Amino acid sequence: MKGFRCEGCGWISTVKRVVCPRCGGKKFQEVYLSGECRLLTFTRLYAVSEGVKDMPLTLGVVEFDNGARVLGQITSEKVSVGMKLRLAWGLLRVVDGKKIYGFKFKPEN
Amino acid sequence: MFRKIAIIGCGMTKFGRHEDKTLTDLMTESSLEAIRDAGIDEKDIGAIYVGNMLAQELNKQTLLATVLADQLALYNVAVDGISNGTASGGSAVRNAFLAVASGFCDIALVTGVEKMRGSPRDKVTDLIATMSHPSEYVQGATLPSLAAMFTRLYMQKYGVERRHLAMVAVKNHSNALKNPYAHIRKAVTLEELLSEDNPKNPVVADPLRLYDCCPMSDGAASLILCSLEEAEKIVDTPIVIAGIGQASDNPVVCEREDPTVLEALRRASQQAFKMAKITPKDIDVAELHDAFTILEIAESEDAGFFKKGTGHKALEEEVTSLDGELPINPSGGLKARGHPVGATGVAQLVELTWQLRGEAEARQVKGAEKAFSCNLGGFASNVLAFVLARGD
Ligand SMILES: [Zn+2]
Asked: Which of B31, B27, B202, B15 is nearest to B117 (CA)?
């Protein structure tokens, strides 16, 4: 998973920006987020959008060791705050008839 | 510096389900009521602003302001549509304010409108979800899911419990019983809402249940704005727009430094209070954007009324009840008055105008002189704040 690290303050985001929201820096370095991350908060969503198949859809916010926080789908309904997750890949949803694939998170082992 | 601006007329349709009325019917009805309320002629209007979010997709209609101008046969004035997500209503008011304050026109009509009920729920949910960041939209994030994750963080950090969320719903439903314009006029009890297996209150996105979320509504609301100097000649009780603020925040909620803080609301409210030269302590009544029960609690803190993390205690101590020290959402709020998204920011100011004039009938906050509202776009990524004051 690609991220952008601000050279000014070290803040990492998965969103490409031209100015850093934290320090105003304008130089970014591409980094890759991988390995273990920790679940900060989650929900199991029963009122899903058009184009989303899973019911409920488990969504969560994870934090990587380098501080990057990312929202994503979790492949299991059995989740708890603090649990360790890893990156996975799969179908996220359908938008205008087009299948969208991307990163998700799955429980370790 | 610009002129002082007052609200001299207001009107709204009942919020709820309007199968038999078109968007045009709704916005015309509330606009005519505001014109009648101000006691002006439609020919006195020098500009029209219409706030709306979803008509292009749900009603296959754009250029709503043009259609409204045609209804009023006002062909020689500037008419604009304002779309800013769920803050479209508030943005429309701000634009109308600027038009009159600058002296570019003397009287402006601002109308917010939305018609959502006739469309499939998952489609509306999806359109509303487009306000989230594209990186989160592709994951299937919706506003209720963002609110649910926000709620879980809030519970962990500040000790908010499910019963506090239920208290917001109970209070706002009870207020809406006194509001003939409200979408949902039904009392609910804490017991009903805290029951784990109440089929009428299913889980939407845990820990949030149906009664933690506002309904989707049809409806319109309108205001007539005028310079204070002129207003004093036209009406007995002009209501001054004493302060306006607007600010934004990182739309990726989880990336915010403290994701439990609504920073855009803090900034917007501080701007509005500074412009009005008052502090949150001076406010007698507030209309907050309670699209989800947790938001009323969080906004009551970030708008500056209570210390961060103590909003639920003020709620529990009934400080925010209709007869409390700072009544919040006397109208029933988005929770029970309803949330026709483009109309909400305008409807909040209609309610506060009635409150400050002393015309709010059974839900009147006694002696209210200064009022506050906030209207949120997205998950508080674009926020407008208003301070109103009696002109006398
Ligand atoms: Zn930086």
From this structure: B15
* Closest CB from A43, A52, A69 relative to B148: A43
Checking ipTM against 0.95, whether it exceeds it is: yes
CATH no. for residue B80? 3.40.47.10
Tell me how far the alpha carbon of residue B323 lies from the centroid of ligand 1, in angstroms: 47
Determine the structural domain holding residue B107 and report its residue range. 5-119+216-234
State how far Cα B358 lies from the chain centre.
Answer: 20
Residue B131 lies in a domain: no
Position B276 in a domain: no
> What is the reported pTM?
0.98
Q: Please answer yes or no on whether B152 and A44 come within 8 Å at the CB atom.
A: no
Q: How confident is the model over B349-381, as pLDDT tens digits? A: 999 999 999 999 999 999 999 999 999 999 999
The answer, yes or no, to whether residue B392 has pLDDT greater than 90, is no
Question: How many domains does one find in chain B?
Answer: 1
- Residues in A closer than 8 angstroms to B122, CB to CB, are 47-50
- Reference B276, options B306, B234, B315, B304; nearest CA is B304
Residue B77 forms part of a structural domain: yes
What does the pLDDT look like over B178-226, one tens digit per residue? 999 999 999 999 999 999 999 999 999 999 999 999 999 999 999 999 9
Cis peptide before A56 (omega within 30 of 0): yes
CA distance B256 to B15: 34
pLDDT digits (tens, 9 = 90+) for B113-127: 999 999 999 999 999
B241 is a domain residue: no
Which residues are within 5 Å of ligand 1 (an ion), measured at CB? Answer: A 6, 8-9, 11, 20, 22-23, 25
Contact A50 B123 (CB under 8 A): yes
